[in-house]
């Protein structure tokens, strides 16, 4: 039996294994275990008291939403494009920048390849080595830029922190990469979906002076609101204007807009989330180490685990059926050995339950 291609598919898993959904603990989706900021539900409830929230079209320009994001990300509103998820923004960037050939470091989020293929982009995978913690700045030649030049690629698509490894490439390395890419007329598309956990490391400030750079961000994972479907990207204002024209109209609903604005305004929630995640991730890493389970050096809200098993699929199913634990089986991540699993960092009780289950298997 094959695992879902994405995390967070509890209804499917509960039906498939005939297990009540409330018995399952979802470590497969990297969502803030604290749930949304309290103001989100209040803002949506208040919006529904006005009938025009549902009877009128959303703001075509998403002005209030982009203004809110601009304040949160400390960047001009005219540098921001929004959509109902990462994929529509990536597709818009591909069309805007006329991407033809893309170098893709792997392992990586599977939707990168799916989106590139759907848009008929030539893809060359660049396998990252577990021997150097899947780093982009490996000393082993060729470098990313050298490989891109050799392959006549016009674009590199990568993530920081990476998914599924959680590895954060240092800011100095990312700046060197950006400057090399700029000098060689190569576009750099960077998915920073989990950068909220280390916000000072973002390359968003560099978009003001680098038209070849597009930075993608998610608001739903960090703020615990994936059901609202909203994402944004930041680029040079000229690029952003053109990119926005390539996004389908009315990209974010009115209710999602109200919820996201409320979420981004809660600075105390954001700081508490960063602190809590760092503490819980450290505790989980330590507990896994006592079980001799190696992990990557993650800076996000998940860990990549390497488990000793001859049958990853059977182990994944066993954890679900016997312990109600749903890990992200990583067998469909390109270039990643099949014995890797990804586990979200959840609250202390859930993390202890994961450790207890792994101790038995």
Structure commentary:
With 361 residues, the chain is an alpha/beta fold. It folds into two domains: 111 residues, Aspartate Aminotransferase, domain 1 (Alpha-Beta Complex); 227 residues, Type I PLP-dependent aspartate aminotransferase-like (Major domain) (Aspartate Aminotransferase, domain 2, 3-Layer(aba) Sandwich). The chain is 40% helix and 15% strand. It contains 13 helices and twelve strands. The strands form three sheets. A seven-stranded mixed beta sheet has the order 2-8-7-6-5-3-4, sandwiched between helices. A three-stranded antiparallel beta sheet has the order 9-12-11, covered by helices on one side. It has a two-stranded parallel sheet with strand order 1-10. Helix 5 crosses helix 6. This is Aminotransferase. Its EC number is 2.6.1.-. It comes from Granulicella sibirica.
List the helices and strands and how they pair.
Blueprint: H1 10-17, E1 25-26, H2 38-47, H3 52-55, H4 63-73, E2 80-83, H5 86-96, E3 101-106, H6 110-118, E4 122-127, H7 144-150, E5 155-159, H8 171-183, E6 187-191, E7 213-218, E8 231-235, H9 237-245, H10 254-265, H11 267-290, E9 302-306, H12 312-323, E10 325-326, E11 328-329, E12 340-344, H13 348-360
Parallel strand pairs: 1-10, 3-4, 3-5, 5-6, 6-7
Antiparallel strand pairs: 2-8, 7-8, 9-12, 11-12
Helix pairs in contact: 2-10, 4-10, 5-6, 5-9, 11-13
């Amino acid at each position: 039996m094959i695992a879902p291609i994405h995390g967070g598919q509890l209804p499917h898993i509960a039906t498939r294994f005939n297990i009540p959904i409330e018995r399952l603990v979802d470590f497969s989706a990297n969502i803030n275990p604290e749930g949304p900021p309290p103001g989100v539900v209040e803002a949506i409830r208040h919006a529904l008291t006005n009938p025009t929230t549902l009877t009128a079209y959303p703001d075509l320009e998403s002005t209030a939403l982009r203004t809110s994001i601009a304040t949160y990300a400390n960047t001009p509103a005219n540098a921001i494009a929004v959509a109902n998820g990462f994929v529509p923004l990536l597709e818009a960037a591909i069309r805007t920048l006329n991407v033809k050939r893309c170098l893709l470091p792997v392992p990586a989020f599977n939707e990168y390849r799916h989106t590139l293929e759907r848009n008929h982009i030539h893809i060359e995978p660049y396998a990252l080595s577990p021997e150097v913690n899947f780093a982009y700045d490996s000393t082993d030649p060729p470098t990313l830029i050298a490989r891109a030049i050799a392959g006549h690629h016009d674009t590199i698509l990568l993530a920081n922190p990476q998914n599924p490894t959680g590895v954060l490439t240092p800011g100095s390395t990312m700046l060197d990469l950006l400057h090399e890419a700029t000098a060689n007329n190569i576009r750099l598309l960077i998915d920073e979906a989990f950068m909220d956990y280390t916000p000072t490391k973002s390359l968003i400030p560099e978009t003001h002076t680098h038209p070849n750079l597009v930075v993608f961000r998610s608001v739903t994972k960090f703020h615990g609101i994936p059901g609202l479907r909203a994402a944004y990207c930041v680029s040079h204002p000229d690029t952003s204007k053109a990119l926005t024209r390539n996004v389908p109209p009315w990209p974010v609903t009115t209710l999602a807009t109200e919820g996201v604005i409320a979420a981004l305004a809660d600075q105390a929630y954001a700081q508490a989330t960063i602190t809590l995640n760092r503490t819980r991730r450290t505790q989980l890493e330590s507990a896994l180490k006592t079980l001799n389970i190696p992990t990557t050096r993650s800076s996000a809200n998940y860990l990549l685990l390497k488990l000793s098993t001859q049958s990853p699929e059977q182990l994944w199913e066993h954890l679900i059926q016997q312990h109600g634990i749903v890990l992200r089986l990583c067998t469909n991540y390109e270039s990643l050995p099949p014995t890797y699993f990804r586990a979200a960092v959840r609250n202390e009780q859930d993390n202890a339950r994961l450790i207890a289950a792994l101790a038995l298997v």
